């Protein structure tokens, strides 16, 4: 399995209520786009990728189960974090992260 299909379905349900959302296969997983900008995704089998304000990366990574997004040995991608499965077990926590990603993507100029 390339990504967690149960997590993908949970995200799909949360993103469905938003206008202009497009679901796309990317990076061996799934991503949800708003205005052509990635909001959230399921990558690395079980982790949630969330787009955030770049200046909020350090604070987000201090939260439990959250770390920078990037390839090992390379500089992390600015403005994205990974949330481990334990950080989104609770529906309210998943919804919070989806809201963060959706708000950031919607605030960006459309592509």
Structure explained in plain terms:
This protein has helices at 5-15, 57-61, 91-107, and strands at 21-26, 29-34, 37-43, 47-51, 66-68, 80-83. It has three helices and six strands; from the N terminus they run H-E-E-E-E-H-E-E-H. It has a single domain (5-107), classed as Aspartate Aminotransferase, domain 1. The longest helix is centred in the C-terminal third of the chain and has 17 residues, at 91-107. Helix 1 packs across helix 3. By secondary structure, it is α+β, with helices and mostly antiparallel strands. The mean pLDDT is 93. Strands 1-2-3-4-6-5 form a six-stranded antiparallel β-sheet. 30% of the residues lie in helices and 28% in strands.
Report, as a whole number of angstroms, the end-to-end distance.
30 Å
Report mean pLDDT, rounded to a whole number: 93
Radius of gyration: 13 Å
- Which percent bin holds the helix content? 25-40%
Assembly state (oligomeric):
single chain
Main pleated sheet: 6 strands, antiparallel
Order of helices and strands: HEEEEHEEH
What class, by secondary structure content? Answer: alpha+beta
Indicate how many domains the architecture comprises. 1
Q: What is the number of strand segments?
A: 6
CATH topology: Aspartate Aminotransferase, domain 1
- Put simply, the count of helices is 3
